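Example with several molecule types.
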Amino acid sequence: MTLSTAVTTGALAALLAVSHAATIQKITAPLDSNPSNVGFYLYVPDKLAPNPPVLVNPHWCHGSALDAYKGTQYAALADTHGFLVIYPDSPNTADKCWDLSSPGTLHHGGGGDSLGIVSMVNYTLAKYKANAGRVFATGVSSGAMMTTTLLGAYPDVFAAGSAYSGVPFGCFKAADTTTSKNSSSLVDVWSDACATGRLTQSPEAWAALVEDAFPGYAGWRPKMQLFHGTADAVLNYTVLGEEVKQWNAVLGFPQTPTTVTPNTPLPGWTKSVYGDGGDWLEVYSAAGVTHNIQQHESLTLAWLDLSS
Ligand SMILES: *[C@@H]1O[C@H](CO)[C@@H](O)[C@H](O)[C@H]1NC(C)=O
Ligand SMILES: *[C@@H]1O[C@H](CO)[C@@H](O)[C@H](O)[C@H]1NC(C)=O
Ligand SMILES: *[C@@H]1O[C@H](CO)[C@@H](O)[C@H](O)[C@H]1NC(C)=O
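Resulting structure tokens for the full complex:
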């Protein structure tokens, strides 16, 4: 019996696809600085692009690096487009949420999970001669919050990000009233005031959190793409408006969109673009969609300029 009679064409294609795909690796090499001991998983496709871009894909709460690897299309897309994917793994074994509230994680070079992840980026850039000008982040829920934490605290490292169902940078810390705000134990804060959208503040107050993350920084600010469902009962839809205020203020844009396109990419989803003369903040509002929002990898890849 020949192979071609033993398996259907589809199964053979799947077999070949599997045999060509690389596998995720756990990296144990020492990093410059990983104070909270974030786990480091890396996907290197068989065919790397020359001077490859780097995508960081932090997982959601109660998830892991391997869940993110298996649960999204990014590794398969890396096979097609030749970029590297870093899957960090939260050291917080209690709930596997990211540290989005400690003074360390919220400050450039300050420590916490964000610094460990940036050290992974540094390692990857050096080891694979990757492109320091094309480092990106994307994630859902806690992974979205880590995406905005990375972009806010390390605008010199990340060129753009895509955040699905997150909150503004520093929101949990800003909304926290239970702990001394300067306490370094402020690691696993969940704030109902933030999550329910009760904490609303001015664009300037939101932007100040980002500016305080890296005092004196006057360089490039990353582009931001946001997605949020109107029926999100975990992180209320109101927080999307707070995020829009924050990033428009950080980027120096007016708070009104330059274009609004209904039914994009799906019926009931509305795309709004902010900023004059360039796509710097792109926002998708998804009518009737819950916290379990569908990721649109193709839109995210296009936004991060990873599909070429
Ligand atoms: C990353 O590398 C740059 C350039 O070598 C260095 O300035 C920076 O401190 C490094 N950051 C981390 C977190 O290792
Ligand atoms: C936190 O630190 C700031 C700046 O160092 C200081 O002004 C403030 O009083 C401190 N707050 C608390 C609660 O310790
Ligand atoms: C979001 O918050 C608003 C205002 O409190 C509330 O009316 C709405 O029901 C909340 N949405 C969800 C999905 O819980």
